[in-house]
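The records we work with from here on pair a chain with its fold. These numbers are not coordinates but entries in a learned vocabulary of local backbone shapes. To see the layout at work, look at the sequence and tokens printed below:
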Amino acid sequence: MKTFFKSLISLSLVTSLFFVGCNNTVSKNTSSDPLKRTELLMGTTVSVTLFDHQDPEILNDAFNLVKELENELSLNKSSTLLTELNASSGTAPYKVNSTLFDIVEKGVYYSELTNGSFDLSVGPIVKLWSIGLPEARVPSQEEIDAALPTIGYENIILDPDASTIYLEKPNMKLDLGGIAKGYTADAIADLLASKGVEHALVDLGGNIYTLGHKVDGSLWKVGIQDPFENRNNIVGYVSVADQSVVTSGIYERFLEANGKKYHHILDPKTGYPFDNDIAGISIISDKSIDGDALSTAVFSKGLEEGLAFVQTLPGVDAIFISKDSKIYITEGLKGNFVLTNEAFELIN
């Protein structure tokens, strides 16, 4: 449940925003320049930049993979494997491919880990609000009350031997928006590595994966979005290699109605957007699928509980930006995160 992000800029600061570039374009100037392609897919701006290869076929393979996954995992397209699974709810186990099974299995894991504050069965509520789509609206309380009983990850039954998923309750709908882009970023990184690529950036609208180091051996500097300003404005940066940085917040997608702003991160227990002290959160992890799920899950817990929760997760760090412009970081980022924006205060 997140969107958009930015490209590489001249001083090699990668901002956690959308990559700058035209849709469906490949940029290539000289043999020493990066080879980059940008398209609008999965409801966001997708960019892949290669720094040690000049073969456009590698980018073709990467973007064909994204299109293939979108056609399997989208909740907003008709006749995808996900919509077929959702249509089977309340009837019988439905056989799926290994991709969908693995993503749902990971989603169930994080649903259990967070006691349902992250719940991939939140689809009925997501469809009611449709935030980010032309049909976005504030649903009635009656509509929300009718949808809430269909939500519950406990009613997702996985059978790995038969490769089936059973949605026990009628009208259940899985929404993979909080995890599918992370899976896709990891899949692209794996594909690039299989082609011999050692230095690349993958950006799926908020999910940045840094493959390897920079060509000169130094770390990538990934900027953290200022949640109160337009894209490309940052609060600071972290230095990473072979890691994912996923940023989410109340600025990404929202609906303004009746004099109020409703962001897209929905509470599966109330049916309304989470209301807490967090404006933005960035998760740094080895796998983007983990960062994707956790950016939503940790946001749902609020600042104090979210900080404590991340500290229990090995190999995961987080940056929290509060609504009063204070920044909190986990222990693993001390000495790494660099604050560059004087409008914010680093608390710990």
About this structure: The first strand starts at residue 13 and ends at 15. Residues 1-12, 15-25, 27-31 have pLDDT under 50 and may be disordered. Residues 288-311 form the longest helix (24 residues). The CA atoms of residues 175 and 252 lie 18 Å apart.
